Amino acid sequence: MKFLISNDDGFDAEGILALKKAASSFGEGTIVAPDQGYSGCGHRVTDKAPIRVESRPDDVHVVYGTPADCTRLGLVKLVKDPDWVLSGINHGGNLAGDIFMSGTAAAAREAAISGKKAIAFSQYIHLELSPPNWERTTLWTRHVLNVLFDKELKPGQFWNVNFPALPEGDVTPEIVFCRHDTSQVDLTYEWSADGAMYRGVYRERGRRPGCDVDVCFSGKISVTRIQLDASAE
């Protein structure tokens, strides 16, 4: 298989290198990723200025643009007819409403808009635990890819995967297919003379039993099928 690999943390982030390593077990991966971090940029695209691209060794293309730009340029020029677009692995969770702000999710969503199958990967980080063990996350990613490649994914859909933050160990978490949580985010701000600073605590956010936040925070791998059609009944 052939993969277009992107992210929102930058072309040299540990997460995207882990993703490319995991994908190499199944085929060839080409990185088309931003020159810098674009965390929280959402689905922003560049359409009023040129987008510079630097091609580097080892199948890496550095794009001076957003994650969605990376997917667009990858599909139209840099990676001929990939089987999958893989985005991540994000340094931090992309659960519930995060997917609307996430550049990681946007790269996968842009692929779905273009008719390509895609998966967004994120590694939830618990500040009271050790930093992510990317070798371990690579193994988890390989396991998830092996499962998802055999799952049905209809046109206009993409997968959103979140890995839990766990203490060191060799146990592979259970994969749970679940719904996207719609619980309200904690809107806690600290006000000062400089303005308002968000102070919500990620791990204390609301959660619905069995949805992606609850699954990931409970130590399991959450996998959610996201669709482009956001129309209400």
Mean pLDDT, as a whole number?
95
- The computed structural class is alpha/beta
Main beta sheet: strand number and arrangement?
9 strands, mixed
**What's the CATH first level?**
Alpha Beta
CATH architecture: 3-Layer(aba) Sandwich
Beginning-to-end CA distance, first to last residue: 37 Å
Question: Summed up, what is this model?
Answer:
The protein has helices at 14-23, 67-78, 103-113, 134-148, 212-217; strands at residues 2-6, 28-34, 53-56, 60-63, 84-91, 117-123, 157-163, 175-177, 189-192, 195-198, 221-227. The chain is of the alpha/beta class.
Describe this structure in words.
It is a single chain. With 233 residues, the protein is α/β, with parallel strands linked by helices. It has a single domain (2-182, 209-227), classed as Stationary-phase Survival Protein Sure Homolog, Chain: A (3-Layer(aba) Sandwich). It has five helices and eleven strands. The longest helix is centred in the middle third of the chain and has 15 residues, at 134-148. The protein is globular and about 45 Å long. The chain starts with a strand and ends in a 6-residue tail after the last strand. 43% of the residues are buried. Keywords: Hydrolase, Metal-binding.
